[in-house]
Amino acid sequence: MLRLIPLVSALALSAAAAMADDIRVGVSPGEHAEIMEEVAKVAAGAGLNIDVVEFSDYVVPNQALADGDLDANSFQHRPYLENQIKDRGFDLVEIATTITTPMGVYSDKIEDLAALPEKAKVAIPNDPTNGGRALLLLQDLGLITLAEGTGLVPSPLDVQDNPKGLKFLELDAAQLPRALADADIAVINTNYAIAAGLSPKDDSIAMEKAESPYVNIIVARNGDQDQPWVKTLVEAYHSPEVKAFIDEKYHGAVLTSW
Fold first, then answer.
1. Residue 142: is it exposed, middle or buried by C-beta count within 10 angstroms (0-12/13-18/19+)?
2. Whole-structure pTM over 0.70, yes or no?
3. Tens-binned pLDDT, residue by residue, of the chain (258 aa)
């Protein structure tokens, strides 16, 4: 739990939230947690107190939100939410876009993908959406070809052409930075790369293109969209103060959606 220090924002936030309110927002480590701390400072000036709750994986935050343990979460992109709703039946909705964090390829063994050896070990996330995202990136980089019609959630079984005979290691996304000791390359989400002390700009050997469908979002339970705190939360997130924080801290590794 974070100790929040109220900070009066110059932003004219919603008068509907002028009375003190408390919400719990789930985040993943790294930039999502760091940004939400800044959002909390801005929101406090409008009477909205945000308890930022950090989760170490991508599985629990949606369940916690569906169960009522959270009021909102901010850690996932649209394809992941759509897949979670399809597979687990969550009645959750997007209330705002936030940031895009390009996925990167990292290695402790090579400095250029041209040096990737035959039968190299490639670590990717083990959840369907981020694993599929990693495979799509590897396809864009010319390392593999995926079967047609797999959409945004291909799996290693959908790899149709694999000239180097790459071996895929499917691991929990949070563990991928540690896999660099054993794998030849790892495809890592930006939040976990930053949390592990990696710089997407300086340490990655390849990055996802900016034109990506993987914009991140704030999510709430269906039915809460019109709650006064929702507007205040979104306005605080989309504030000039938060945008300046993101631009100054991440130097292009994290891109704002507004």
1. exposed
2. yes
3. 344 333 334 344 444 334 458 999 999 999 999 999 999 999 999 999 999 999 998 889 999 999 999 999 999 999 999 999 999 999 999 999 999 988 999 999 999 999 999 999 999 999 999 999 999 999 999 999 999 999 999 999 999 999 999 999 999 999 999 999 999 999 999 889 988 999 998 999 999 987 778 899 999 999 999 999 999 999 999 999 999 999 999 988 898 999
Pick the CATH number of 15-101+214-256 from 1.10.10.10, 3.40.930.10, 3.40.190.10, 3.40.50.450: 3.40.190.10
CATH number of 104-207: 3.40.190.10
Question: What is the location of CATH 3.40.190.10 in the chain?
Answer: 15-101+214-256, 104-207
Structure tokens at 118: 């035959």
Q: How many CB atoms lie within 10 A of CB 7?
A: 13
Question: Quick one: which of 224, 195, 239, 237 has its CA closest to 50?
Answer: 237
- Nearest residue to 117 via CA among 161, 167, 187: 167
